[in-house]
Amino acid sequence: MDKIVSLSKRRGFVFPSSEIYGGLGSSYDYGHYGVLLKDNVKARWLEAMVRERDDIVALDSSIILHPDVWRASGHVGGFSDPLVDCRFCKQRFREDHLETEQCGKRPSKKPGETAECDLTEPRQFNLMFQTRVGAMEESGVDVYLRPETAQGIFINFKNVAQIARRRPPFGIAQVGKAFRNEITPGNFIFRTLEFEQMEMEFFVPPAEADEWYRYWVAERLAWHVRYGVRESHLRVRPHDPDELSHYSSATSDIEYLFPMGWSELEGIANRGDYDLTQHTEASGTKLEWVDAGTGERFVPHVIEPALGVNRSMLTFLLDAYDEEVVGERDRTVLRLHPQLAPVKAAVLPLVGKDAAMVEKARGLFDELRRHYSVEYDDNGAIGRRYRRQDEIGTPYGLTIDEQTLEDETVTVRDRDSLAQERLPIGGVRARIGELLAADWRSPKSELST
Ligand code: ATP
User: What average pLDDT does the segment 75-89 reach?
Assistant: First the structure.
C-alpha cells in the first residue's frame, strides 16, 4: 500500500486533501491521472451496465433529498456503526473492527488488550452528515448528504418505469457522490468520507429474485476479471445469517486480497421489496408495477450491486503495480488494462531536439489526440520518458526516429512485454484502436498463486 500511496502522489493520481493545512483524515483529492483513471472506471461500469444491455437505464438523482426519504429508508434510525471510546488513549474504534485495529498507545496490541485500555460500552453513531437547507436558521430544514445513491433510484421508480415502458426485470443505474462520517481511518482511498458509488437497482418479479441475485453475483465478479483483476485475488463471501440486514434474504461481498487482508470490494444484496414498500407507506405514492394490458400488479423485488469508484480504482492500482529489472535497471510499471489506463499512448521523438522528428511526432500526436487520451513528450532521455509512462500505466509507446524520416514508419512499444513492432505512421491510429478493443489479461495472472 505504501508504494501505491507514494506513486499516486509522485505521479499525480491522488493527493491527501487539504495538505497545506495539515490534511483532513480520510479525504483525498484526485490529480490529473487520477481523474482520467476514475473516469475510465466509471465509463467501463456504465458500458457494462447500460450501454451493452437492453434492460438497464441511467439516472442521476440529487445528493440532498427530502429528509423523509432517509426516515423511510431506515437510515435516520439505523445507519450507524457501534463505536467504543478508550478513556485512556482517547481514540475511537468501531466495535466490529476491534480485532483488526491497533491500540492508540501500543500499536502492537489490539484496543482493550493492555492494562491501561479503558473501553466504553458501544454506542450507536449515525454515519450521515447533516446540513441545513434555507436561508434562515429558524425556518430552515435539517437535511442529509446522501450516504448512498440507491434511495434516489427507489424514489424515482415510478418516473422511470413509466418512461422506460419496461416490464420487470429491468434496472436503474446511477453513479454519484455519497458521504459517510466514517471514523475508521487509514488504508488510503479504501474508505473515505466522500466517495463515488456505482449502484444499480434491478427490479424483478418476486419469484425470480433468487435467480437474479445469483446472476448478478456472477456478472459483477466477471466484470472485475474482465478489467484485469487477478482471479486469485478475488473471492465471493456470502454473508452469515447474523450479518444480513433485516430486510435482506441474501447478500454477498466480492472481496479483494488488499494489503490489509481480504476486504469488501463490492456488495451484492437481495433487498426484497423493502425499499419500495417503505417509500410507498411513507409517501403515499404506490411504487409498484402495473401491467397496462392485463391489470396485473406487484411490488418488484430488488437486487443491488454496489461498488465504490475509489475502492475499485485502488483495487486496479494495487493489482496492476509491478516492479521488475530490465537490462539491469529497475522499472516500476502499472499493468493496467489498456481500457482503464489514463493515457493510451505516448508519442516520443527519439531525439527531442531534432526539428524534423519533433514535427513528425507532433503531427502524429495531433491526429491521435482527436480519438484517444495520448501524451507527447520530447523532454529528456528516451529511457526516462519510457519509465515515466510505465509508471502511469501507458500501454503503448510510439517512437519517432531516424528511420521514420526515411520510410514513414514508427515503432510501437508494448508496456508489458516490451516487444516492439514497426508500423506505417498512417496505420497507427487504427492499430491502437485494434489493440484497445482486444481481450486483455494481466501478465501478472500467470505468476500469481
Ligand atoms: P464497509 O463495511 O467496507 O464500510 P459497507 O458494507 O458499509 O462497506 P455498502 O453500504 O455495502 O458498504 O456500500 C457499497 C460499496 O460502496 C462498498 O462495497 C464499497 O465499494 C463502497 N463504499 C462504501 N463505503 C465507502 C467509503 N466510505 N469509501 C469508499 N467506498 C465506500
Answer: 88
Q: Which residue has the cell 514535427?
A: 359
Does residue 448 surpass a pLDDT of 70? no
pLDDT at 97: 82
Strand pairing category for 321-326 and 329-334: antiparallel
Bond from prior residue into 241 cis (ω within 30 degrees of 0):
no
Backbone φ/ψ region at 74: left (φ over 0), alpha (ψ -120 to 50), beta: left
Ligand 1 proximity of 94 Cβ (cutoff 6 Å) = no
Q: End-to-end CA distance of the chain, in Å?
A: 19
pTM attached to this predicted model: 0.93
Q: What's the one-letter identity of residue 371?
A: H
Structural element, H or E, at residue 196: strand 194-204
For residues 269-282, average pLDDT: 97
The CB of 195 under 6 Å from ligand 1? The reply is: yes
What's the burial of 368, exposed, middle or buried (CB within 10 Å: 0-12/13-18/19+)?
A: buried
Q: Ligand 1: does its nearest atom lie under 6 Å from the Cβ of 192? A: yes
CA distance 254 to 266: 5
For ligand 1, is residue 306 a contact (CB within 6 Å)?
A: yes
Q: Which H or E run includes 275?
A: helix 274-283
State yes or no: pLDDT of 14 exceeds 90. Answer: yes
Phi, psi values for residue 164, rounded to 5°: -75, -20
Q: What is the DSSP string of 15-28?
A: EETTGGGT--TT-E
User: How remote is the CA of residue 230 from the centroid of ligand 1, in Å?
Assistant: 21
